[in-house]
Amino acid sequence: MAFQRRRNHYYHRFRFLIPFISSIFGGLLLFFALLSFLAPSPNVSDHTHRIPPFNAASDKAIGVSHFRVPRNGARSGRDLWTSRNAKFYSGCSNASNKFRKANAITHPNRYLLIATSGGLNQQRTGITDAVVAARILNATLIVPKLDQKSFWKDSSNFSEIFNVNWFISFLSKDVNIIHQLPKRGRKTWNAHSMRVPRKCSERCYQNRVLPVLLKRMCQAIQLSKFDYRLANKLETDLQKLRCRVNYHALKFTDSIEKMGEKLVHRMRARSKHYIALHLRFEPDMLAFSGCYYGGGEKERRELGKIRRRWKTLHQVSNPEKERRHGKCPLTPEEVGLMLRALGYGQDVHIYVASGEVYGGEETLAPLKALFPNFYSKETIASKQELENFSSYSSRMAALDFIVCDESDVFVTNNNGNMARILAGRRRYFGHKPTIRPNAKKLYRLFTNRANMTWGAFSSRVRTYQRGFMGEPNEMRPGRGEFHENPSPCICEEARFHVKSDLGPRKNDTTRRRDEAAMVGDDQNNDYEPEWPDSEEEEEQVEFQDKDPFNTSVEYEGGNSEEPNLELEEILSD
Predict the structure, then answer these.
(1) Cα angle 424, 163, 114; round to 5
(2) What CATH class has 102-249?
């Protein structure tokens, strides 16, 4: 009975607590329901969106984004459209007083012909260096012959790409240039064909080519496959001549210039600023790199088939290693993420210069999601407008060259000829921003970004990209290819940061950079590298020089020179 009384006591005691506890929980539920109703949507509050993966069907989706990317660019603390201190630098390529006029040094009846090779930009380097070679030999230069038999299969001649009359007249004080070899009586002179090694110095031309010119009765020589046949370092006046050729004498024809200006005007009509992107994500480029982008067995089969065209291009056992070492182009999505992290928002307009992109629209989708204002010459010009250009690869490349050159920011995804020439040109004409991905460092970020916040990711991108943004003095004078870093042709305005107690400020003057003078001084010694004499050995050196991935290549079957040339041409521009 006592137990029963205690149980009834506790029952009546807790009977009154149950409604009270229920009312508290009910109030809490109403509070949280009201709070969730009044709170803004997460998609609205942070203004973010998810980027679709590069390849949703991949067995290892490297390109999949697992973190939220803002629509607006990250705060970078810098002007996105100009280079710091660019106003203190300018191109300066005038000849010195000791550089004699062409009519005083050119020997009569001594002629130089050159045959270029490769795509438009590779041929441009050959034309530039040919003028300097003619000056070294004190010879008259015949208007260069463009490559019409290469992979690009463009039948255009020099005068259909470049303004030949301007080219001849602008350089008349430096080198005598004529349209064709003169005739002796009724016969045209026969030119002796030969090839000089890569990186041939001034002394190399004088020792190898000049004796042949002197002993030949015709006194005319044609140098074949003329690309990168001139040393990177020459005396300063010759380097400045290179700049006068590349940046002033080589103008496109009026029809190309007008169409290019029309494309630029249409980009400017859409936005005050625009980015030009040289994507280089074509199947041949990816196959040669040996990299893997997460496309599964289909990607391995398709790119492997292309790769097997070259006999000694070994199969890559560890594609991830190539990516780790920065030897692979970034995917379009990765390029977009890099640009967003550098501060470029969704409203930025992008012009893309590219061939066939591997994977087509599926590959481009993440980049277009990041930057929907996405254009190419085919989207901002009609087929009728491009009709006179579309059948000629060099003319189409010239249009891309103009739009990229005029862009506020140029982004390159490889280190081919177009990227190098435009980087040098943009340095010469005011150091306009030129972004090169630091692929080796960025690879780690892209693979680990799922474990990072966007803030941490964007901060590291900005850190890793220091020195890769086209700022003045990023590259030391004499480093890299001359066409990419024409330091002897860039002058710096002297800035005197004088404190008030040190007297009045000096007048601004223009001076040559000491380092640039050192480039010329290096050539005063008698050292000449021993370049291979045989063509077989030379081909090996060529591909070490030109291969953006530093891989030795040989084509299977037949004449080894032409197939090697094909691969070089595919990758070079």
Answers:
(1) 75
(2) alpha beta
Question: For residue 418, which phi and psi values (nearest 5 degrees)?
Answer: -60, -40
**What is the value of pTM for the model shown?**
0.77
Q: What is the pLDDT of residue 19?
A: 63
Tokens of 246: 């590349």
- Smallest CA-to-CA distance from 140 within 179, 106, 103, 93 is with 106
Predicted local distance difference test score (pLDDT) of residue 16: 56
3-state SS, one letter per residue, for 464-505: HCCCCCCCCCCCCCCCCCCCCCCHHHEEEECCCCCCHHHCCC
Phi, psi of 276 (to 5 degrees): -105, 130
CA 256/CA 398 separation, integer angstroms: 7
140-142: strand order across its sheet: 177-178, 140-142, 111-114, 220-223, 192-194
Beta-strand relationship, 274-278 and 409-412: parallel
Encoding tokens for residue 260? 């290019």
- The Cα 314–Cα 432 span in angstroms is 39
Q: Where in the chain is the domain with CATH 3.40.50?
A: 102-249
Residue-wise pLDDT for 383-428, tens only, equals 999 999 999 999 999 999 999 999 999 999 988 899 999 999 999 9
| pLDDT confidence of residue 99 | 97
> Among candidates 416, 412, 337, which has minimal Cα distance to 370?
337
Cα–Cα distance, 329 to 282 (Å, whole number):
10
Determine contact, residues 268/299, Cβ cutoff 8 Å.
no
Please name the amino acid found at residue 415: N
What CA dihedral angle connects 308, 314, 319 and 321, to 10 degrees?
-160
Distance CA 490, CA 246 (A): 14
Q: What pLDDT score was predicted for residue 507?
A: 38
Ranges under pLDDT 50 in the chain? 3, 37, 39-65, 496-565
Which token pair is 67? 């973190």
Look at residue 200 in the predicted model and tell me its pLDDT: 96
pLDDT at 398: 97
pLDDT in the model for residue 227: 87
